[in-house]
Design a protein that fits this description.
Blueprint lengths: L5 E4 L6 E4 L1 H9 L10 H17 L3 E2 L5 H4 E2 L4 E4 L6 E4 L12 H7 L11
Antiparallel strand pairs: 1-2, 3-4, 5-6
């Protein structure tokens, strides 16, 4: 398919920009169906603004496949340590049927890791 340069109006700044034939071919090869709606300057500004907001919004990033595009707030729940009684926060809702430990006590009682047996 032959591509030709196309003029598009940016949805943010209303300036016209060129969607080049090379960019159109790249989009087609990547399976992208929609044309860009922002000029390169507005796209760059939006990216930099988004990355600076992500650093400050208080969300934990779990990757692209987590809910809400990887921006799931991590909710912590208060609990009393079953060993020392000190209050701590855990990332799960304590149910009461199993003990909850602070990180110090957990590291003391945690079973040692099993090493893999040597190869034969």
């Amino acid at each position: 398919m032959a591509y030709a340069d196309k003029q598009i109006v940016c949805r943010d700044c209303n300036n016209s920009f060129t969607f080049t034939a090379g960019e159109q071919e790249f989009y087609a090869n990547k399976g992208l169906m929609n044309e860009p709606s922002r000029c390169p300057a507005c796209r760059q500004a939006r990216r930099s603004n988004r990355s600076s907001l992500e650093e400050m919004d208080g969300y934990v990033r779990y990757g692209n496949f987590a809910s809400f595009g990887g921006k799931t707030p991590r909710q912590m729940h208060p609990a009393a340590c079953a060993e020392c009684g000190q209050m701590t926060e855990v990332p799960f809702q304590p149910r009461g049927d199993r003990p909850v430990y602070c990180s110090t006590c957990y590291n003391k009682i945690r079973p040692p890791r099993q090493e893999a047996p040597p190869p034969r």
